[in-house]
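Translate structure to sequence.
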């Protein structure tokens, strides 16, 4: 079994998400992941060593080299072949540092924290703009940073197949304060509670709208939500039936 890829720590989302050639040749696009962008930013723009970059991103120097080589090839492919360059996806989490002093590693969170921009972090299982209804199966989380009742930053984070109860650790690593979701099993609920993440379950519809409703204090949710994506209540059996919630050991376990 392949070793799970370690989540890469980046300072912030890139401000520019894409670049297009002046004379488009219509031969496709190149997608640079956010963690690849971060390595390029640290090594090429800030002229850090691979070792310094590795310490900043909390990964090995070998991994930095691998990411760097992949990123440089993608950049050359875009320049040489006239392909549009997009920045999206990847296996990463945003540095949140210390609320007063920043992370102490010369990262951009230090400046953001002094402005008090991110006082609450909200996560929503996400698919095609909607609240994805099966927590244990979600492949993406949309992360919202909010201050004074307003969203100040949004990002998408791939769960990279964390699955079920491990998603609680994934969210904890992102320093999420609140999870808004649809169905969720008892094991995952317990893990979230242990991680100090407040749960608002039984929510459906547009993810952005759900977060806005939450911030406005008008979100409709089910405090007793259980995993029920087969159309019947089986919260006492979630995780016991191999065909049950999550399909592989249950929802959130």
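Result:
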């Amino acid at each position: 079994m392949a070793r799970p890829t370690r989540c890469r720590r980046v300072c912030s989302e890139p401000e520019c998400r894409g670049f297009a050639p002046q004379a488009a040749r219509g031969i496709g696009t190149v997608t640079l992941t956010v963690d690849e962008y971060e390595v390029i930013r640290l090594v090429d723009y800030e002229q850090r060593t691979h070792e310094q970059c590795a310490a900043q991103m909390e990964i090995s120097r070998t991994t930095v080299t691998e990411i760097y080589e992949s990123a440089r090839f993608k950049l050359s492919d875009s320049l040489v072949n006239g392909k549009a360059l997009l920045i999206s996806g990847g296996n990463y989490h945003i540095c949140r540092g210390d609320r007063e002093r920043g992370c102490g590693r010369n990262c951009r969170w230090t400046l953001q924290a002094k402005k008090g921009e991110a006082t609450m972090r909200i996560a929503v299982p996400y698919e095609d703009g909607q609240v994805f209804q099966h927590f244990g199966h979600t492949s993406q989380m949309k992360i919202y940073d909010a201050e004074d009742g307003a969203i100040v930053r949004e990002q998408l984070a791939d769960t990279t197949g964390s699955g079920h109860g491990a998603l609680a650790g994934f969210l904890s690593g992102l320093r999420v304060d609140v999870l808004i979701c649809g169905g969720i099993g008892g094991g995952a609920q317990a893990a979230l509670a242990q991680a100090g993440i407040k749960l608002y379950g039984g929510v459906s519809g547009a993810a952005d709208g759900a977060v806005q409703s939450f911030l406005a204090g008008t979100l409709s949710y089910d405090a007793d939500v259980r995993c029920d994506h087969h159309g019947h209540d089986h919260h006492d059996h979630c995780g016991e039936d191999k065909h049950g919630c999550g399909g592989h050991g249950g929802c959130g376990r």
